[in-house]
Amino acid sequence: MKAEAVNKPAAVKLRLTKKLKRSNNNNLAGYIFISPWLLGFLLLTVWPIIQSFYLSFTEYSLLEAPTWTGTQNYVNIFKNDTDFTTSLKVTFIFVLFSVPLKLFFSLMVAMMLNKNLKGMNLYRTAIYFPSLIGGSVAVAALWRNMFSLNGYFNQVLAWFGIEGVGWITNPDTSLGTLILLNTWQFGSTMVIFLAGLKQIPNELYESASVDGASKIRKFFHITLPMLSPVMFFNLVLGIIGSFQMFTAASIITQGGPINSTYMYALFLYDKAFKHYQMGYASALAWILLVIVALITAINFLVSRYWVFYETDGGKQK
Amino acid sequence: MKQSILKGLTLLTLAATLALTACGNSGGNNGESNAANSGGKADPNAPVKLKIMWQGPDTRHQAMLKTQEVYTKLNPSVTFSPEYMAWDDYWKKLPTLAASHSLPDVLHMDGAYIQEFATRGTLEDLSDIDLTGVIDDKTLENLKIDGKLYGIPISRNAQGIAFNKEALAAAGIELPKKDWTWDEYFDFARNARAKLPEGVYPIGDSTTWDHYLYYQMSYGKGPIIQEDGKKFNLDKELFMKFYGIYAEFREKKIVPPADMGSAFKDNDPQADPMASGKVMTRGATVGSVGALTQLMPGKVGIVNMPVGPEGGGWAQPTIFLSVSTDAKHKDAAKAFIKWFVTEKEAGQTYGMNFGIPIYDDIYAALEPNLEEKDKLGKELYDVAKDKAMPFSPAAAGWTEWIDNYKKTMDAVMFGQKSLEDAYNEITKSGNAIAEKQSSK
């Protein structure tokens, strides 16, 4: 009996170490499997981020080694740089208009595609198809041709006797054209909405119908609340994506005319690769990071009041 | 359950996206590492692969590739690893290569950028390449930066103005003549307005710094950027007068409306100001006028830049081949460049694709077989050289100011800024950069 009592903990210990070893082996295999991604993440993302933080305190022309200047870059950005305020303003306007528009538009399309019609899969594919090439350079180049002074858009207007303007070369209309382009690239947002719509149980609509609810009422009292987590997801991503808007601004308008489409990311790029001020550009990148992080944090705080999670037992958080 | 997965997904995607905001612009390394450099002093017959980069239109790319083939045929141990692109992309790519110390062995340099790269230690001094009898010493001496030769000039270039001789003649307008003055240039525009149909404009608008620079220099007020970028010199009287004339021209529709002017793109079949038929004249250089001629064969005439008391425009080499300090095969690179500028066989292959070859013997061999587009380049050079002033590129560190100049003058063009304000802003930022450069 005594011997048994002594042995028991030893046996448990043995079993435990075996189990630990096995689980360690399992972990190792797991890490090996994700190592390509992990290495890429560490070397191509984390390391450059650390470096850019260091560089933001230096003057670095790319052609010479960086020299330490302390907080000079940040001071210059906030005190002397009118391009900084201009580009920030342009970017905020862009985000303010393009995000809600895109959400609204993609939700409408998603609801249309959620109907049970014959050949719906074909429609879905056809409508989603342009998004496969959505944010690409080719689309931006196409857009440039469509909205230039002699572009297709003005040619169509001419049929109706309307004389168009140079949509992308006129400071009054250029930003609007880019917002339109961003709205048109609704594909991925729409697909997420569509998936969300499919998750809403039909019973809810059925019982609402029994109670005599109208279509509009159903939309506001069933669809929207049930869709709010998806809406939140799209909203947060949309805001972050819009703050980083670059391709279209760079290709279609190069930030012009007269800075009317000078997006923050484009300004940052110009500083780094055109004006040879990588240190300054790094500081700009960190400022953008802080701005986006702040806005996202606010978003998460506010989300308590309007995002509805079924798992919370129907309670508002 | 699904919602909580979604919540998790939101957070994860968010984390990744936040991370990406900052990583888009990571620098290269910190300039500590240095590419291995043997200087190519080993066995001269050991196989060498030269990395080479240049910019330009497609015809130039093809000619350049053929020239390398010829060289490899003559020197089987030397092969090439070429990379080529258009102007804009080229100047954006070079700094990133410089930052990672991976500039090619041989690279194409331009007068507008060579200072930026040379003064920052990315180019080799090539003074030891013997070019006696090929390029005269005075030309080489003029091209030196701080007493060193950072690029071997490969061609002669010049700035002038191309015009649509066919359309001008059809409208009964007298064609521009060699050594026309600025007053004659502006009168030409006013006069042509009366005779041209609506929607067609005599001259283009002007918002870039170089166009005004020609004006200021031809009236003897000197370059805008002086003393290697340490001195800023913008003459207020001339500035106000010059842009005052353009303000008048905008009102009288002598220049195209602002939104049309911003849409022009040189050498694009539809968007080129001249090829599209919208404007009768535009700037052209020896090296670029050929491309315009191909778009509108038989219609292009050329004249030099308008002149003032001091002269007008420039005519000198602006295209160089350089060797980078990162080069792994410096001697082989130098040998190739020397062959490129001195051997007729090389010149026969690349022809007029870089302008007029700098070595007169090469040009003499090409001359009997020139096509129309090439002849026009030569013609432009000959017209421009009499009254040419020195080429005055921006100094290192001034690209930002050049961008600002255009943006400010664009705002004036669109009627959103007064000329006085524009002058003050441009002067303020110019002085700030000059001060910064002086303190270095």
TrEMBL record, chain A:
InterPro entries, sorted: ABC_transporter_permease (IPR051393), MetI-like (IPR000515), MetI-like_sf (IPR035906)
Membrane topology, from the record: Multi-pass membrane protein
Domain ABC transmembrane type-1: 88-299
Pfam families per the UniProt record, alphabetical: BPD_transp_1 (PF00528)
Compartment(s) of residence: Cell membrane
Main location: membrane
Gene3D superfamilies attached to this UniProt entry: MetI-like
Record key words, sorted: Cell membrane, Membrane, Sugar transport, Transmembrane, Transmembrane helix, Transport
Transmembrane segments: 28-50, 90-113, 125-143, 175-197, 218-240, 246-269, 281-302
One biological process term in Gene Ontology: transmembrane transport
Source domain of life: Bacteria
Cellular component GO terms held in the UniProt record: plasma membrane
Similarity remark: Belongs to the binding-protein-dependent transport system permease family.
The protein's name in its UniProt record: Multiple sugar transport system permease protein
Organism of derivation: Paenibacillus catalpae
From TrEMBL, chain B:
Coiled-coil regions listed: none
Record InterPro entries: Bact_solute-bd_prot1, SBP
Keywords recorded for this protein, A-Z: Signal, Sugar transport, Transport
A Pfam entry, by short name: SBP_bac_1
Span of the signal peptide: 1-21
Recorded superkingdom: Bacteria
PANTHER family the record matches: ARABINOSE-BINDING PROTEIN-RELATED, DIACETYLCHITOBIOSE BINDING PROTEIN DASA
UniProt protein name: Multiple sugar transport system substrate-binding protein
Organism of this sequence: Paenibacillus catalpae
